[in-house]
Amino acid sequence: MVKAKTQFVCQNCGAVHSKWSGRCDVCGEWNTLVEQIVSSGKSSLAQAVRTGQALKVQSMKDMATDDIAQRMPTGALDLDTVLGGGILPGAVVLLAGQPGIGKSTLLLQVAACIATSNSVLYVSGEESASQVKLRAGRLGAESRERLDFAASTSANDIAATIRGNKYGLVIVDSIQTLALDEITSAPGTVSQITNSSNVLIRAAKETESAVVLVGHVTKEGSIAGPKVLEHLVDVVLQFEGDRYGGFKIVRAVKNRFGSTNEAALFEMYEEGLRPVENPSAALLAERNPADGSVVLATLEGNRPLLVEIQALVNPTSFGYPKRTASGFDLNRLNVLIAVMERRTKLNLSDKDIYINVVGGLKLNDQAADLAICMAIASAAAGRRLNDEAVVFGEVGLGGEVRSVLGVEKRVSEAKKLGFKLAIAPKIHRKNTFIKPVGDLRTALIDYLQK
Q1: Checking CA distances to 231, which of 17, 202, 411, 412 falls within 20 to 30 Å?
Q2: Is the model's pLDDT at 36 over the cut of 60?
Q3: What global pTM score does this model have?
């Protein structure tokens, strides 16, 4: 009997190896090689060459366009905006986030809302019916007659259910738990995730049923499984935030039907997730103005936010100063500290520096540079910034303050909350609300009070 050929596939990067080893030679990860049986390729390839039919093509000019199906509202206006107006029939959405962040809670709330007008199926491969029933009771979703539930890890069965064309929306929690009967590898492997996703996507496109897949993430924060999973789906949503408190943010990393510059903010309560109506006011509600406290006018997607930046500077007790940042990139913080020491003559080499972004937000905005620098200088010198001022601007290595995007949105949000001026790059000096600064040293000298 001819022995079946095997190969070893890395579950992190998908690289194929002829023999097993403890470490993948391509990505460097340990214990990620899984044995898989190689199907006979010669006969299949020879048959594929001889088969097939010429495609029926038509002119782009003469193509008929079908009416665009009406989107399904999720019940949260901000989430609808992130999705481009709601969930489109036939679309495949991938929602990924850290464990405990609230993915299942959010999707059960969405399912309950859509079930008022469409049939919805919630498929769980991780929880039993009784567990989901308890959550549904807490969220007020148990009384929906058009909301069905099934517990399954079979991608074949779920795809067959989708092809039955009974449901307008199918939620699968999660894609890493599914397995195809034709593949012998364990659930969560590269081959299982890729092929299970393909089967579900084909079923969704054939029946115009929308499918939402829940995805796990690795300890680095990227979506677990092959990168091809993100290419297969239509929309990729990233659920971020602190699972123990603070705001939670849903961002569109990829969206074939809308913008990727939008963000939805939620807050967790006992009865589920609620959209944050006025996040800027909520973030500044408990602010206690002091040295080291600066208000940043930032953007989350296209939404302007006012968030407090806090800095604490202490003399170091050891030979090597400590730098810690919560909600801000630590490498960028080290760069800004070096710029401050070089361009403003502040001596920070023997100081421990701690930065905190209030509300559990993670800043990816370059305009936060100036606010971070002014907060550090304020804490180091014991001088306060004007309580009625907001700050934004990018800081270059030469100490210059560079222009940023969305100035009008930032200024408008600051005016709504009662602020009187904005310290910003001098290129925006035409706006009378803005007090222009050309370099970091000028900003510190002119606006840090005693």
Answers
A1: 17
A2: yes
A3: 0.80
